[in-house]
Structures are given as C-alpha cells and as structure tokens.
Amino acid sequence: QQQVKQSPQSLIVQKGGISIINCAYENTAFDYFPWYQQFPGKGPALLIAIRPDVSEKKEGRFTISFNKSAKQFSLHIMDSQPGDSATYFCAASNSRRTDSWGKLQFGAGTQVVVTP
Amino acid sequence: GAVVSQHPSWVICKSGTSVKIECRSLDFQATTMFWYRQFPKQSLMLMATSNEGSKATYEQGVEKDKFLINHASLTLSTLTVTSAHPEDSSFYICSAIRLVNEQFFGPGTRLTVL
Fold first, then answer.
1. Would you give the DSSP letter of residue A99?
2. CA distance A105 to chain B (A)
3. Under a CB-based contact definition with an 8 Å cutoff, are residues B4 and B25 in contact?
4. Beta partners for residue B104, in sequence order
C-alpha cells in the first residue's frame, strides 16, 4: 500500500509556465517532506524539503506548499525551463520513529516535460 | 550539497556470477545508508537499511542471502548481488543520511545480467 500518493503521473508544460505536482499522505506521524528531481540514468537529487510547522517554502523557482489539515503538499515550479524536464518524486518520513529513522516513503513519480 | 558516489556506474555480468557495488559518502560520515532498486519508469523501492557496525535490515520480500550488504566504515557500504540472474537486472541506487532526515543519493549503478 503506497503511503504517499502522487499526481499527475506525467505533465507537459510550456517554457515559462508553472508546473504543479501534488502529493497526499495518510500517516500523520510524517514530519519531513522532501522533493527529489531525477534525470534519466541518474540518482535522485534533493530539490527542496519542508517540515509540517511551515506552510510554504521557496527556493529559487521551486516552492513547496504544505497543508497539514488536508495532509497534502505540492511542488510548484515557476517559469519552467526545458532543463527542468525530469521525473520528480515526493517523499515523506517520520524522524521520531527509531526503527524507521530516515526511511523515506516515495510517491510514484511525475514525469515533467517542458516544451520550448 | 553532500556528495555520494557509487562504483561502478554500470556493470554487465554473466548469469551465476556475483557483483559488488560500492557506495561512498565523500564529504561526510554516514552511520546509515540505504539501498534501493529502480525499474524503468517506476519509483524507488527500498531494499535494505545499512548501519555501520551492525547487520543490515532488509525490507520484506528482499532476500538477504542474495543481496549481501556490508557497512564497513562510516563512509562505505557495499551491496553484493550473489549468483545474479537476468531478473536482477535493474538500476541500484544507494543513499546516505548526513543529518536527521537529510538523505543524499548516489548516481546509481546499472546492472545487466546476461
């Protein structure tokens, strides 16, 4: 059973547009929510992360919005560029549980294609 | 960001042979590393948690005698795929934790078993 549900599966956006990827979780014990970017044949790279005491975090063109009551979080890529074309994974973990410390529960991934 | 390396980046082997993949944290010490496998167009599947100085913890369904993990030091973990078969062909990725929850991934190793 997937603990983090991610949508959409794929996304096509024009250069300069906004890419939005959504994730939902059930486990209220999760307290760390990172986003990873993965290019074909490469390992995932940490993009941005948020904790539940913050509703929004922005780093450059990337913004995470977090809704604790709805148990949802999303990634917004502003002014999308062709170089942003990649697969994006959301994830969640529970840092307080010692038997699963650091374990990430990944979403299924979203393939983003930015057209010129 | 923190740097995690993997070696080799790709390997082709014959069925029945064993293959060792190394994962190193280059600029930080990691008491905990993870091993994942990823099939094309799919998410990462956690195989095991590697802890320095102790036995690895395997996820349900992962054969510990087939995927041997050794975390010899605070900067090195190895995954050995024993008696590899074509169905073991996959993209293997390691990760290391630098601070609480900060997990950095290696570049991955493409294993092809003929």
1. G
2. 9
3. yes
4. B96
Question: Cis omega before residue B107 (within 30°)?
Answer: no
Helix or strand run (H / E) with residue A37 = strand A33-38
In angstroms, the separation between the Cα of residue B86 and the nearest Cα of chain A is 19
Q: Which mean pLDDT values do the consecutive 10-residue runs of chain B (114 residues) have?
A: 91 97 94 93 93 89 94 93 96 89 91 97
CA A88-B12-B80 angle, to 5 degrees, is: 80
How far is A79 from A17, CA to CA, in rounded Å? 5
With an 8 Å Cβ cutoff, is A41 touching chain B?
A: yes
pLDDT single digits (tens) A11-50: 999 999 999 999 999 999 999 999 999 999 999 999 999 9
Cβ proximity of B5 and B24 under 8 Å: yes
